[in-house]
Design brief:
The protein contains 16 helices and no strands. It is an all-alpha fold and 246 residues long. The chain folds into two domains: 74 residues, no CATH class; 153 residues, Leucine-rich Repeat Variant. The longest helix has 17 residues. It is globular.
C-alpha cells in the first residue's frame, strides 16, 4: 500500500463528530485531525504491515492519524535516537504519546535511555513519554533482572510532585507497573510509594495512595517476570533443590 492509498483510506474513515467526541470524553485535542478512532487505525495497521519508508512519509504529512499510524508500522529496532527526539517534540496529547511510546519507543534500543532523559523534561508530553516507557517496559522486556526496574523508583520519587494530570497519571502508572512485575519489586514499589506519601505534595499523595491501594490488594496480578526466576515452577524448583554442601 502506498502513501496516497493510505491517505485515501484515512479520509474515507474520517468523521468530524469523532473529533468532538474524543475531546469531550477523553480530553484528546489534536491539530489536523480527521476523526478516526484508534481501533480503526489498528485494523489498517494489520493490512499494511511493517513499512519504515511509508511510516516516514505518513509522519511528514502532518495528519494526526497518519502520525499515529506511523508509530504502528515502523520497526522499533530501526528507529534512531535523533528521530525519537524529533518526533517526541510533536506530541500534543496523551493518545499519540502513548501510541508512540508503548509499542514503538519502548521496544527500541534507545528506549531506556530516553525514559530517563525525558523524565526530567519540562514539556508535559515529553515528560509523560519518559514515564510511559517505564510503565510499558515491564511488559516489553520479559527477561531483564530487577536492577533495571529498580532504577525507575528514585526517578518516580523525584518527579512525584508534578501536578499536571497527564504527567502524574503516567508516574503513577509506572510505579504500579514496576510493582506488578514480581513479588520483590512489588515490595520495593510499595516502600517507594510510602515514602512519597509522606511528602507535602498533593499530586505525590495521589500518586502514592493510588499505587498502594492497587499493589497491596491480595489479588493484585503479578507478572512473575523474569519467569526463569519468578514463575511458580521456578520457585518450586528452588525450594526443593538440594542444598550444596560447603
Amino acid at each position: 500500500m502506498n502513501l496516497q492509498q493510505v491517505i485515501t483510506r484515512l479520509q474515507a474513515l474520517a468523521d468530524p463528530e469523532k473529533i468532538v467526541i474524543k475531546e469531550r470524553k477523553f480530553g484528546i485535542k489534536a491539530q489536523n485531525s480527521l476523526g478516526v478512532y484508534h481501533k480503526d487505525l489498528k485494523d489498517l495497521t494489520m493490512e499494511i504491515g511493517r513499512d519504515n519508508n511509508l511510516a516516514h512519509a505518513l509522519f511528514e504529512t502532518g495528519i494526526y492519524e497518519a502520525r499515529i499510524l506511523c508509530s504502528k508500522i515502523y520497526d522499533p529496532m530501526c528507529i534512531t535516537e535523533g528521530q525519537m527526539d524529533q518526533w517526541v517534540m510533536t506530541f500534543e496529547n496523551w493518545e499519540i504519546c502513548d501510541s508512540f511510546c508503548m509499542g514503538f519507543f519502548t521496544k527500541s534500543k534507545h528506549g531506556l535511555a530516553k525514559a530517563f532523559e525525558w523524565s526530567e523534561n519540562e514539556h508535559e508530553f515529553i515528560k509523560r513519554a519518559g514515564f510511559v516507557i517505564m510503565a510499558a517496559y515491564g511488559f516489553a522486556d520479559k527477561t531483564s533482572g530487577n536492577e533495571v526496574f529498580e532504577q525507575f523508583l528514585p526517578v518516580i520519587e523525584r518527579e512525584a510532585n508534578d501536578d499536571r494530570i497527564y504527567v502524574k497519571k503516567a508516574i503513577n502508572w509506572a510505579l504500579r507497573n514496576v510493582g506488578k512485575r514480581n513479588i520483590d519489586l512489588n515490595k520495593k514499589a510499595i516502600l517507594t510509594a510510602k515514602r512519597i506519601l509522606v511528602t507535602d505534595s498533593k499530586p505525590a499523595k495521589w500518586i502514592a495512595t493510588n499505587a498502594i491501594a492497587e499493589l497491596e490488594k491480595p489479588d493484585v496480578h503479578i507478572l512473575d517476570y523474569p519467569r526463569h526466576i519468578y514463575s511458580p515452577k521456578a520457585c518450586k524448583s528452588m525450594i526443593h533443590s538440594p542444598r550444596r554442601r560447603g
